[in-house]
Amino acid sequence: MSVAGRRLTVAVVYPDLLGTYGDGGNGMVLARRAAWRGIDVELLQATSDRPLPPADLYTIGGGEDGPQVRAATSLIEDGMLAERVEAGAVVLAVCAGFQLVGRTFPDAADRPHDGLGLLDVATAKGNGPRAVGELVAAPAHDAPHTATGDRLPRLNGFENHGGMTVVGPGSRPLARVERGVGNGGGDGSEGAWAGRVLGTYLHGPVLARNTALADVLLGWALAPAGSPAGATVELEGLDDHEELALRYERLEAVDGAGGTGWRSRWARMRTGR
Amino acid sequence: MTVRASPQRTARTAVATAVVSGVNRLSRALGRGSGTVVGGRAGLVVDPGLLAALADGRQVALVTGTNGKTTTTRLLAVALTGTGGPTPVSNDTGANMPAGHVAALAGAPDARAAVLEVDEGYLGRLIVETDPDVVVLLNLSRDQLDRIAEVRMLVDRWRAALAGLSPPGGAGVGTLVVANADDPMVAWAAASAPEVCWVGAGQVWHDDAVGCPSCGGRIAFGDDGRWACDRCAFARPDVAADVSGPDLMLADGTRLPIRIGLPGQFNRSNAAMAAMAAARLLEATGEAAAGAGVATALGRLAGVTEVAGRFSTVTRAGRPVRLLLAKNPAGWTAIFDLLDETGDPAAAVVLSVNARTADGFDTSWLWDVPFERLGGRSVVATGERRLDLGVRLRYAGVAHAVVDGPLPAIDHAVAGSSPGTTVEFLGNYTAFADLRRAL
């Protein structure tokens, strides 16, 4: 099925509040990858001073504690995001965004706040130091697959958060941590997903570092209206040599930094691992 | 600083000071660089109170903020340097944590004034230890989020530290805070200080300041540079001086031209902040008459044409290469403004990015930089994270080459651009240092 000529609206949710960690790049990656396939794509920067516009695919990024609370309150009051998810829209939520699409998350003073409940996850303040560094995680066996039925390749990116997220029975973990902390709830999981909503702690931005995941989200968003969650369309391949070079360089930097010798320690010091 | 030192205290400080210069001499002799930080660290081990002791009895000015610290520190030091008078001591090598301050101060026992660049995370400690006469707060935006912490965490720490400053007319010397009124984050921190000189120094980058730090409301920015929260009373303070194009407008209507040898509007802002801080110090010592300090200070800045190599031009393969430093989204945006303002619109651009400790390990910030603005130019990506840059440029729709090594990257840019044109080199912190070493 050709997707050329199809229309697609991608909205970056509240870049003015949740734009701290470069996650607005996810919207750029999705929009470009759609446009390169001939899709008529519109990329919206949906700031918090206006009602959230309707879109097929929403990205929500990381932000600071205060703005995170304001964003959650405002998205709940607005109602559009939950309504669109009900209608089949795709959501990628990162870090603070991941936490606020869950059931509950803490503010700076550790008071719990209601999230949107789009994912069955609950976040509390972690008891250790902030999780900061490169993160590598292998997608779970039941995690979303590519349109050709392949397991997604290892996910990689940079995490920087103080929250500890537990995945409830209504959602599934996205991946198993190989390096780094991830959800930090003790089960070694990273991220969560349910239906067409996917949450992760990975920055980078995650879709620039893992283009296969970007194409999974695009496939979901372009599936025929009314099809069940998980339905997708196959997209033509792109010349991803720069993305792949970056991916292998990063994975090698992290894998090579696992030893205990001085070389590995030095490598860890230089790459933040 | 007015702490009475006990004899034991003084002896310990003397030993520690000797250690600083001894270790630095050794470090230089071994070819391990200037050794400023290692000497300072050794001195602080011998005497943890060394910084306070070395600051004692001097006029102290602290300069901090996300962008413009090194430049403003240099401009302020120059503004305080009169003809034939003593030169202020300054940590002009960019070592802006306590070990660097100790090394600088120990190396200049006779300097009457100290102008210290301070890492954003160390402002509180420097205030406690040096009891400064002036604190300059430039701006605050996202930078090195894996190390420095988010803007609002930092701003709350600044606010607490500034609330503890000695008030004017009290027992000690009153501290004047010179603060950029155009940055709501700076304004929130500085509002707790007993005495503030507000300067409308401009801040192009608003993306970290939309959430009100006071009440969680939304800060709205007007076209005239004014800003206010939509929920509480927090708003831009009235200013004592305003940067208006090429001039500094004082509240009494005086218009003073900012004539500096550095390019770009953000450097005129840095000069304005330096001049307002210098005025206080020059008038306190009688070097300038009351009310004449700003003009005196501004008049001294014209000769500064580069700061630690930044804004300088070198020659490579017969072609001029301008060296520019930018470390974070706000800084890169300001440098792109500078390219538009002062550069050849067709000049080739070399971008160099590393991600070491001093740069921040996470390169996600590249996606906040408007690289789209380089469209149409010849662009070369280099540095240890050139692959991250390459991907970012691909999604910005900017044609580019990826080249390993800053000098080969410059040569590539030279070969791919018209003879006679300038090549602009933009690097982040350690990438810029790598190039300077390679040249």
Structure characteristics:
heterodimer; A: about 270 residues; alpha/beta; Rossmann fold; about 25% strand; globular; B: about 450 residues; UDP-N-acetylmuramoyl-L-alanine:D-glutamate ligase; Protein-Tyrosine Phosphatase, Chain A; nine-stranded mixed beta sheet; 14 helices
Describe what this molecule looks like in 3D:
The complex is a heterodimer of chains A (273) and B (439). Chain A is an alpha/beta fold and 273 residues long. Helix content of chain A is 29%, strand content 27%. Chain A has 2 domains: 7-237, Class I glutamine amidotransferase (GATase) domain (Rossmann fold, 3-Layer(aba) Sandwich); 239-273, no CATH class. Chain A has helices at residues 24-35, 65-78, 80-86, 96-100, 206-209, 211-222, 241-255, 262-271; strands at 7-13, 40-46, 57-60, 90-94, 104-106, 112-114, 121-125, 131-139, 155-161, 163-167, 172-179, 189-194, 197-200. A 9-stranded mixed beta sheet of chain A has the order 2-1-3-4-13-12-11-8-9, with helices on both faces. A two-stranded antiparallel ribbon of chain A has the order 5-6. In chain A, strands 7-10 form a two-stranded antiparallel sheet. In chain A, helix 1 (24-35) crosses helix 6. The longest helix of chain A has 15 residues, at 241-255. Chain B is an alpha/beta fold and 439 residues long. Chain B folds into 2 domains: 51-299, 3-Layer(aba) Sandwich (UDP-N-acetylmuramoyl-L-alanine:D-glutamate ligase), CATH 3.40.1190; 313-438, Mur ligase, C-terminal domain (Protein-Tyrosine Phosphatase, Chain A), CATH 3.90.190.20. Helix content of chain B is 36%, strand content 16%. Chain B has 14 helices and 17 strands. Chain B has helices spanning 7-29, 36-46, 50-55, 69-79, 98-106, 123-130, 151-163, 184-190, 265-284, 293-299, 329-342, 386-396, 406-415, 429-438; strands at 59-64, 89-90, 113-117, 134-137, 176-180, 196-200, 219-221, 227-229, 241-244, 247-250, 255-257, 313-316, 319-325, 348-352, 379-382, 400-402, 423-427. Chain B has a 9-stranded mixed beta sheet, sandwiched between helices. A 6-stranded mixed beta sheet of chain B has the order 12-13-17-14-15-16, with helices on both faces. In chain B, a hairpin with a 5-residue loop joins strand 7 (219-221) and strand 8. In chain B, helix 6 packs parallel to helix 7 and helix 9 (265-284) crosses helix 10 (293-299). The radius of gyration of chain B is 22 Å and the shape is globular. The model of chain B has no long low-confidence stretch (mean pLDDT 91). Chain A binds chain B through residues 15-17, 19-25, 28-29, 32, 48-49, 64-67, 69-70, 108, 132-134, 158, 160, 203-205, 208, 242-243, 245-246, 249, 269-272, and chain B through 142, 145-146, 150-153, 207-208, 210-211, 213, 216, 218, 220, 355-357, 361-368, 387-388, 390-392, 394-397, 402.
